[in-house]
Amino acid sequence: MSRLFAPLGACVLLACAPVAGEGDAAAAGGDASLAGQALFVANKRGNSVMKIDLLTGRELARIASCANPHELATSPDGAHVALACYGGTSVDIFETADLRLMRSIELGTNARPHGIVWHANGDFYVTAEGRESLFWVRKPVDAPEAFEFSTGQRGSHMIAVSPDARHAWTMDLGSGTVTLVDLQTRRAPRSVAVGVEPEGIALSPDGKALWVSARGSDKAIELDPMTLDVRSEAATGDFPLRLAIRPQGDVAVTSNLADGSLSVIELATARVIRTIAVSSREEAQARAQVTILWSADGKRIYVAETGTDTIAEVDYASGKVRRRLIAGEGGDGLAILP
């Protein structure tokens, strides 16, 4: 049976906001390896985007954005961050230094862009849920050129892109499918139904395994990227909304909304090897954890708790919540400065 959960202002550069504490939060963040690193957060209820210094946990900037912003992606050179305007029709690009809006790229009527990947090739790829399509945007900073590819599926929500940028995969919420799109030949897309209410999607760094999380069936499912055949399944925690693969390619984690946990899946064996409690089951619905993001070194997991406007920073080795950072209202989409 499907489980339903409640859906999860303009300002200028702000004075530093305090860190939401679990013990001495500022001290917890004082790891020299975090110097110069920043976390960007899309606040979907607050209609804003913000930048947090990861060394100190302090808010550096917050600006008004488009309505209902969702996913974020940073450029390979770290100079820009792209914001998918889920309540509108554009992808907006900001300077990472000060969050100055430098460009807005329109995708057309009813686009509702959501999932976004800024590829190592310098282009970005974004779903347009309202158009049942995805867009490949070439040279987004200097001379944007957008190419649309139909998925033919309802609610194309999240996206993954191959290392060579020849293929993309969407997770289609409305249709309950995964769709493979050929970005080079424009062959007809191929879609298959996967699990119950699939939503999360991630491709292994080597491009050889596609993983999805099916929130209605409490499973993570491995697919062959090109045939979309199911290879293996792993039982996760309750309501695995999102899935993210560690940059080192050894494990994936699912964000389990209903019980406040992360399920850690060993990719080589397709087996859950650990469960990390970010919050208790009793706290889970209030916290409403959604988006998860790995640090580049694979040592930390950032978990957006959209109900309490916080971002939990989890130490992967110990499984402990090191601190909670204050986000804006409905902080959801996350991106990190590479």
UniProtKB/TrEMBL annotation:
Recorded hits in InterPro entries, A to Z, give:
Host-pathogen_enzymatic-act (IPR051200), N2O_reductase_N (IPR011045), WD40/YVTN_repeat-like_dom_sf (IPR015943)
Q: Which residues form the signal peptide?
A: 1-21
Give UniProt keywords alphabetically: Signal
Protein's name according to its UniProt entry: YncE family protein
The species is Parerythrobacter lacustris
